[in-house]
Write a structure and sequence with these properties.
With 219 residues, this protein is α/β, with parallel strands linked by helices. Helix content is 47%, strand content 16%. It has nine helices and six strands. A six-stranded mixed beta sheet has the order 2-1-3-4-5-6. Helix 3 links the parallel strand 1 and strand 2. The longest helix has 27 residues.
C-alpha cells in the first residue's frame, strides 16, 4: 500500500511538471522549440552516469538541443568489439551523423558503480550490474596496484578520476571516434562533477591530472 501511495505521489508531481511546462515554459520559448522540431545540431556529446543527481544541462547552464547525451551506470564506454549496444550506437551516430566536435565523459562524486568496484560485495545479487562493471575493471586494477593504502575517501576520488581516463581510452577504440580524432575533427575531454559543491574537475589532456574548472591555479 505504501509503495502504491508513493508511486501515485511521484506520478502526480511529474504530471504537474508537464502541465507547468505546457502552460508556462513552452509558450515562453516556442520559437526555440519550433527551430528544434525538424533537426538537431548539438555542440557536444555528453557521456555521463545515470545517477539522478547528475543533470548536465543544469550544471553547464545549457538547453534543449545543446547536448547529445548518453547515460548509463558509471558513465562507461565499452571498448569497440567487447560489447555492441546502445553506447556504441550512440557514439557512432554522434560521430558519423551529427558530427559533434566535442565529447565530454563526465563522472561524479559518490558514484554507486565506483563504490561497487572498490567493494564488490556491494553489488552482490546484481548480476547485470556486475557484468556491466567489467568495462571499468582497468580503474579498479590501477587503484589496487598503486593506492592500496589510501584512505577510503581518497580511493573513491581516484577511482572516479581513473575511470574517466580509462573510458576515454575505450572511446578511442571506436573506429568512428579514432578516425575523427586522428583528423582533428573531434576533441575528447574528461570531467568529474562534485555533487556537494557544484564544481567541475577537468582532466588535463596531457598529464591526466584533474583541476577545478574556473580555479585560478591548479589544486
Amino acid at each position: 500500500m505504501e509503495v502504491a501511495v508513493k508511486s501515485q505521489e511521484a506520478l502526480a508531481r511529474i504530471v504537474a511538471g508537464v502541465k507547468k511546462f505546457q502552460a508556462e515554459i513552452y509558450p515562453a520559448q516556442r520559437e526555440m522549440f519550433e527551430t528544434l522540431k525538424g533537426r538537431q545540431q548539438p555542440m557536444a556529446m555528453f557521456i555521463t552516469c545515470a545517477d539522478s543527481r547528475v543533470v548536465p544541462n543544469l550544471f553547464t547552464q545549457t538547453g534543449p538541443g545543446d547536448f547529445f547525451i548518453e547515460r548509463n551506470p558509471g558513465n562507461l564506454v565499452p571498448r569497440y568489439g567487447d560489447f555492441v549496444g546502445g553506447v556504441s550506437g550512440g557514439v557512432e551516430y554522434a560521430m558519423l551523423v551529427l558530427k559533434v566536435p566535442l565529447i565530454i565523459i563526465c563522472g561524479h562524486t559518490d558514484c554507486g558503480v565506483m563504490k561497487g568496484l572498490l567493494h564488490p560485495d556491494h553489488v552482490h545479487g546484481l548480476p547485470a550490474v556486475q557484468e556491466w562493471m567489467r568495462h571499468a575493471s582497468e580503474a579498479r586494477h590501477r587503484i589496487m596496484r598503486d593506492h592500496s593504502d589510501a584512505t577510503e575517501a581518497e580511493k573513491l576520488r581516484l577511482i572516479t578520476e581513473y575511470n574517466v581516463l580509462a573510458q576515454i581510452e575505450n572511446l578511442k577504440s571506436h573506429p568512428s571516434v579514432h578516425s575523427r580524432v586522428t583528423s582533428g575533427e573531434v576533441e575528447i575531454r574528461g570531467w568529474v562533477y562534485d555533487i556537494g559543491e557544484g564544481s567541475i574537475w577537468a582532466a588535463d589532456p596531457e598529464s591526466g591530472r584533474f583541476n577545478k574548472v574556473g580555479a585560478t591555479k591548479p589544486e
